[in-house]
Amino acid sequence: MKDILTARWMVQMIHTADNMYFHGWDERNGGNISLLLTEEEVKDYISGEVIRTIPLNFDAKEIIGKYFLVTGTGKYFKNVKYDPAANLGLIRIAQNGVDAELMWGYSDGGRFTSELPAHLMSHIARLAIDPENKVIMHCHPTNILAMTFIHTLDEREFTRTLWQMCTECIVVFPDGVNVLPWMLCGTNEIGEATAEKMKTSRLVVWSLHGIYGAGKNLDETFGLIETAEKAAEIYMKIAHLPRVNTLTDEQMHLLEDRFGVKGREGYLD
Ligand code: 13P
Ligand code: ZN
User: Fold this and answer.
1) Could you tell me where in the chain the CATH 3.40.225.10 domains are found?
2) In testing the pocket of ligand 1, which one of 27, 29, 87 has its CB within 8 Å of the most ligand atoms?
């Protein structure tokens, strides 16, 4: 059996958690990541023995047998690199669809993030649209969060404001951002609401809390959130100042043509 800490996906997960911490997106235990892996990717690194079974408390029958590397609940992103086995777990969705089988990790008796419903339901929603989706990432980026206190939560308006803040925003997230009102976190209800929003956008803002991103790999998903957060940072710097210049819808249409993307239907005039 190979050393799991040398697996490429493990190294990427550890680097990503560290990078998110240093961006200030994951204070204390804030944030969580889930990475979908194939049996082929994991088989050389695990014995195949189930360490313990943990109930999901919802039905995940669409993803029975799938493997996910998931951050642990209450764990600090800043500590992942020092003790990956305690802070991360590799789970497989059991054949009954309602349990997770622990294949590696959570070595101190811990369990997966309290936000697993939102993660797994979002994986199911994104996989139906994009079979290559592998990552769901949640964090608390300062400026996105700040923006939800002072900006309308109307999704078109929220998206347009972000698109206007950096030339390349519309290229990186042409599908825009969807926005949920404040809801109680860690519940199946917020999971279902997030997954519903994931059907039309890879970014879902949780008002007064943080953001969810989805993507094909850790880098792409990190980059998606990074770009939205950068735009929100610019907004927070200028929101209280008179705006002399702005990106126009005409300029954004030129960007659509240049980069071969199409902004969300009805979001540009
Ligand atoms: P966990 O520690 O359970 O992952 O929760 C962190 C968080 O960000 C909740 O929204
Ligand atoms: Zn959170």
Assistant:
1) 1-113, 115-264
2) 29
